[in-house]
């Protein structure tokens, strides 16, 4: 009887180890296949104690549709910080493009920064703003609508550098290796 009890305990132990091993292997497989993601980054967001400099601002979001310029008037938060204003205005522009069905997917602005001399705006998107089958004309007018939106809302930068996931955005039709003038190329 003592021998039976020992073998039953051994079997239970083996089954427990096998189940734990399978659970660990399943977890490892899920992590490798990106079914489970871990994000250990901790972002510190600077907060301003002076909220009197932040207010609602009426802005115009421009886009090219039906062979002419259109705009939508909206309100966004505006402050004394150029990067914050760039972020809010550019994300509002991206949202408007989605509402007008000018992009296929929701595009998010990952970050907006300005050069130390405040002349160049660096805008990093999480995915390509142009569909693969879009013509050069469509791409040009889509990007020009961003430049027009920034220019007409008095963003104090002279050039805009478009990035994709914080890397140079490579496009077969338009050259984004260098910043584009905020004045654009279309009048």
Descriptive tags:
7 strands; GMP Synthetase, Chain A, domain 3; alpha+beta
Summarize the structure.
By secondary structure, this protein is an alpha+beta fold. The chain has helices at 2-32, 82-99, 136-152, and strands at residues 55-65, 68-78, 109-114, 120-125, 159-164, 167-168, 180-181. The strands form two sheets. Strands 3, 4, 5, 6 and 7 form a five-stranded mixed β-sheet that branches. The protein has a two-stranded antiparallel ribbon with strand order 1-2.
CATH fold name of the largest domain, please?
GMP Synthetase, Chain A, domain 3
Largest sheet: 5 strands, mixed
Integer tally of domains: 2
Q: Spell out the helices and strands N to C.
A: HEEHEEHEEE
* End-to-end C-alpha gap: 95 Å
Low-pLDDT residue intervals, each spanning 5 or more residues = none
Please count the beta strands (DSSP E, at least 2 residues each): 7
State mean pLDDT (0 to 100 scale). 85
What is the helix content? Answer: 25-40%
Give the percentage of residues in beta strands. 15-25%
Shape: elongated
Text of the CATH class of the largest domain: Alpha Beta
Using only CA atoms, what is the Rg? 26 Å
Structural class by secondary-structure content: alpha+beta
User: From the 3D coordinates, which CATH architecture of the largest domain would you assign?
Assistant: 2-Layer Sandwich
- The number of helices is 3
Describe this structure as you would to a colleague:
The chain folds into two domains: 1-46; 54-181, GMP Synthetase, Chain A, domain 3 (2-Layer Sandwich). The protein is built from three helices and seven strands; from the N terminus they run H-E-E-H-E-E-H-E-E-E. A hairpin with a 2-residue loop joins strand 1 (55-65) and strand 2 (68-78). It has helices at 2-32, 82-99, 136-152, and strands at residues 55-65, 68-78, 109-114, 120-125, 159-164, 167-168, 180-181. The longest helix has 31 residues, at 2-32. Helix content is 35%, strand content 24%. The strands form two sheets. Strands 3, 4, 5, 6 and 7 form a five-stranded mixed β-sheet that branches. It has a two-stranded antiparallel sheet with strand order 1-2. It is elongated, with a radius of gyration of 26 Å. It is α+β, with helices and mostly antiparallel strands and 187 residues long.
């Amino acid at each position: 009887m003592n021998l039976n009890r020992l073998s039953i305990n051994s079997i239970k132990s083996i089954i427990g180890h096998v189940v734990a091993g399978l659970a660990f292997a399943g977890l490892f497989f899920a992590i490798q296949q990106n079914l489970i993601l871990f994000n250990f980054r901790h972002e510190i967001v600077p907060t301003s104690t002076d909220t009197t400099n932040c207010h609602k601002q009426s802005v115009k979001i421009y886009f090219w549709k039906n062979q002419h310029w259109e705009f939508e008037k909206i309100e966004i938060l505006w402050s004394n910080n150029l990067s914050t204003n760039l972020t809010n205005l550019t994300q509002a522009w991206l949202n408007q493009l989605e509402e007008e069905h000018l992009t296929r997917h929701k595009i998010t602005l990952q970050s907006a920064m300005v050069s130390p001399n405040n002349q160049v705006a660096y805008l990093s998107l999480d995915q390509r703003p142009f569909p693969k089958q879009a013509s050069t004309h469509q791409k040009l007018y889509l990007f020009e609508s961003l430049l027009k939106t920034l220019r007409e809302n008095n963003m104090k930068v002279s050039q805009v550098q478009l990035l994709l996931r914080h890397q140079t955005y490579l496009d077969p039709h338009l050259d984004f290796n260098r910043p584009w003038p905020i004045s654009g190329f279309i009048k």
